[in-house]
Design a protein that fits this description.
This protein has seven helices and nine strands. With 204 residues, the protein is an alpha/beta fold. α2 packs parallel to α4 (68-76).
Length: 204
């Protein structure tokens, strides 16, 4: 069995567990997507209590629905936000918290475009924390997304542009059912160093 098949089997097991347990906010489950899990606000609130969060001025976030509370709290806490556009079709969006009239709207995929600054990525500030969506992660920080590779590409882009370094917190917020025993990684896959569920913070 090749590595992609193993990843697909793991993804399906997580999707099935969330759906059958009633932990997905989507009526038909999260199949093929980053899970929009019940408790995403609780996980974001727990992340908000961490010293890594409190010390961060600029937060990078994936555009996934489950990370919307993270984006909202970043702006509400006076932090600047960099959001990847969906599927990276429009690159990265920079949002200056003190120039936004509605944090709730700006934290959505659509609203981020409305409030984004006209700023080239080469002028972006250094990123103090990266928050990615995940389908499954293990306690070593190994992660898989929905299979399109955008999360890995985003982290790689930030590293290559020196907006982050190897000490930058690279975080995911997940439902406890997304924390599994083992995740197989490809060479190009990027690991996490912090995992936040609805009830705990795991630092790696």
């Amino acid at each position: 069995m090749d590595i992609n098949t193993k990843k697909d089997i793991l993804r399906k097991s997580v999707y099935d567990a969330l759906y059958s347990g009633g932990f997905s906010n989507r009526p038909n489950g999260d199949y093929g997507k980053i899970p929009d899990f019940k408790g995403s606000i609780i996980a974001a609130e727990l992340l908000r209590t961490s010293f890594e969060w409190k010390n961060a001025q600029t937060i990078f976030s994936s555009p996934d629905t489950a990370q919307k509370p993270v984006r909202y709290f970043a702006l509400a806490d006076g932090k600047d936000l960099i959001m990847a556009s969906p599927n990276l079709q429009h690159g990265y969006l920079f949002l200056k918290s003190n120039k936004i009239s509605s944090f709730a709207e700006a934290s959505t995929k659509e609203g981020a475009f409305k409030f984004a600054e006209d700023l080239n990525i080469d002028s972006f500030p250094k990123v103090d924390m990266v928050v990615e969506g995940s389908v499954a992660v293990d306690k070593k920080g190994n992660r898989i997304g929905k299979g399109k590779g955008f999360g890995d590409r985003e982290i790689r882009d930030l590293l290559n542009r020196k907006l982050i370094d190897n000490n930058t917190p690279v975080v995911t917020t997940i439902h406890p059912l997304q924390l599994v025993d083992s995740v197989i990684m490809d060479k190009h896959d990027k690991a996490l160093n912090m995992i936040v569920t609805t009830d705990k913070i795991i630092r790696i």
